[in-house]
Amino acid sequence: MNPLFDIAIMTNNYSHDVATALLAASGATLWILSRNYPVSAISEIESYFVRIYQSITRLATYALLWILIAGVPRVVFYKQYEWSNMAGDLQVFAIIVKHVVMFLLVGTGLFYWAKLNKKVKYLKLKNNEVRR
Predict the structure, then answer these.
(1) Domain range for residue 46?
(2) Distance CA 122, CA 111 (A)
(3) Which side of the chain, N or C, has fewer Cβ within a 10 Å radius?
(4) What is the domain count for the chain?
(5) What is the pTM of this model?
(6) Rounded to whole angstroms, how far apart are CA atoms 113 and 53?
(7) What is the torsional sign of CA 98, 99, 100, 104?
């Protein structure tokens, strides 16, 4: 194959891993922020939380989209670039388990993200009423 194509596929695969880590870090960051959110926060803190939420959500959305986009060539060229002969067919089972776990984590994250989105909508509505 073409060496530039090889580099492109390897770069794609690494960027897929980075996007996965970025998605996980985004979820963990929002979870930590929401767990430490003060019960009686002033409107400036509420506005700051909403802005942080929106920024992290945008970043996580891009990461998730890149995971899906970069995953296609990764799957197509897996045997050529990542297959380990020493691991043999056991790696197929390991990949299936890994993806089941990842889908569960992403699904759980989306569930909690939706719950947090309701809180953010409430805070936005509340702050808009306070500013009037």
Answers:
(1) 3-131
(2) 17
(3) C
(4) 1
(5) 0.83
(6) 10
(7) positive
